[in-house]
Amino acid sequence: DPTLERSFRGHKDAVTSVCFNHNMKQLVTGSLDNCVMVWNFKPQLRAFRFAGHKAGVYSVAFSPVHALIASGSKDRTVRLWQPTVEGKSTVLKAHTGTVRGVTFSSDGRMLATCSDDKTVKIWSVATQKFAFTLTGHQNWVRCVHISPDGRLAVSGGDDRTVRIWDLNSKKVVRTFEDPTGLTNTVSFHPDGTCIASGSTDNSIKLWDLRSNVLLQHYRAHTGPVTHLSFHPTGNFLLSSSLDTTLKVWDLREGQLLYTLHGHEGATNGTAFSPAGDYFASCGADEQVMVWKTNFDRFLEDYTGVSVAKQTRTDPLISEPATAAAAVPSTAPSGGTSGMVPSRVAPFPAPPPRPAAAQSPPCLAATLQHMVGQLDVLTQTIALLDERLTRNED
Fold it and tell me: Tens digit of pLDDT for each residue in 161-187?
């Protein structure tokens, strides 16, 4: 089960966003206290506090390639910081409203930002200059993410749409309507074939970019979903919510794996480490938490082989968690947490294990899984029949 490894305190207001450095030596956070903080995993190194924004910071991101941090603020600016004790920064000005989201492309060449000015803007990281604007949203844009191959971007906001942009033509190529809620967060699946969105209707939706259909719909939380992060394998999804919980979802099985109770207020942001062995969360309680995923047994189920243990020195276990009052409570779930069956299987079935490795318990588990899938298929057919009946009426 996921375990709390470290807890950081230092912000003076709600922490809104969190991201790992690709070298796993640092963690960056943004807060409504107007500051960006860089937390060093080595216990002998103190955290860096970067002051420069004149209003709350809503989003932060570490470049996956360079030693560079981006932050977006209510002061309508984007800043690029060097993650050193000096905290030198460059101010990028182009938005005319609060900057809600910042994200780098996987090659570190592009930066995308979104704002209450209803636009998404693309920046060149090399020149640190504005490149072009994506226009089409009819209300505030709260979130943006760039596809793994750097060809597409996805954005969502208060106009109840999720839009897919072609970054070459600078035009919308797909629009997914979400009439029941405002979109707070969007993310590309690591293989780039689908996207996830979380909204104020407490739900999580997964959309297929190839067939343009809704793959999965989770009635996920009891409060608005604030952030989503895919595990690097693409098999798991991490969500945060105003209901104070973190949830881990198994996308292959379409069910809730864990509910984590660690924060004492709304959880605002999540991030997986580059290797997926850790994840971080932040919240309105001014805390930043780092958790060990411990997903090894699930990954073994998918691959049929034991997951190799890492031999590198672990930067996080050198110091115990400091938040004694925030003991995590994990609750594996056997249900689907209100999943609406989809018409298209979202992910391929796990590869079969070699015949020699099969045993009666494995066979029983396989049969149980097949029965479960047949139940889902039955529900899907019933749902389609109901929709056809409504259309005929």
Answer: 999 999 999 999 999 998 889 999 999
Query: CA of 183: how far to CAs of 14, 75, 204, 230, 325, in Å?
Result: 20, 22, 10, 17, 32
Rounded-to-integer distance, Cα 269 and Cα 122, Å: 23
| Amino acid, res. 9 | R
Pairing of strands 99-104, 110-115: antiparallel
From residue 257, alpha-carbon distances to 121, 229, 293 in Å are 36, 15, 12
Give just the sign of the alpha carbon dihedral 331, 332, 334, 340.
Answer: positive
Q: How many CB atoms lie within 10 A of CB 191?
A: 13
Quick check: 69 and 38 in contact, CB under 8 A?
A: yes
Q: Which tokens go with 82?
A: 């060097």
The whole-number average pLDDT for the span 201-220 is 95
Per-residue burial over 122-131, b if 16 or more Cβ lie within 10 Å, else e, is bbebeeeebb
141 and 135 in contact (C-beta within 8 Å)? no
Residue 116 near residue 156 (C-beta atoms within 8 A): no
Measuring CA to CA, which residue among 228, 234, 237, 192 is closest to residue 210? 192
Q: Half-sphere exposure of 231 toward its Cβ, with a 13 Å CA cutoff?
A: 22
User: What are 227's two structure tokens?
Assistant: 């952030």
Closest CA to 40 of 82, 2, 85: 85
Alpha-carbon radius of gyration of the chain = 21
Tell me how far apart the alpha carbons of residues 261 and 264 are, in angstroms, rounded to a whole number: 8
Cα(226)–Cα(60) distance, rounded to whole angstroms? 14
Residue 10 has, within 13 A of its CA and on its CB side, a CA count of 19
pLDDT in tens, 352-368: 434 433 445 556 666 66
Q: In whole angstroms, what is the distance from residue 68 CA to residue 271 CA?
A: 17
Instruction: List helix spans (H) across the chain.
Output: 296-303, 360-392
Cα 182 from Cα 203, distance rounded (Å): 10
Smallest Cα–Cα separation from 20: which of 83, 92, 99, 75? Answer: 83
Long-range contact set of residues 111-115: C-beta below 8 Å, sequence gap at least 24? 111/61, 111/70, 111/78, 111/80, 112/144, 112/145, 112/146, 112/153, 113/70, 113/72, 113/78, 113/144, 114/141, 114/142, 114/143, 114/144, 114/155, 114/157, 115/72, 115/76, 115/140, 115/141
Specify the pLDDT at position 350: 40
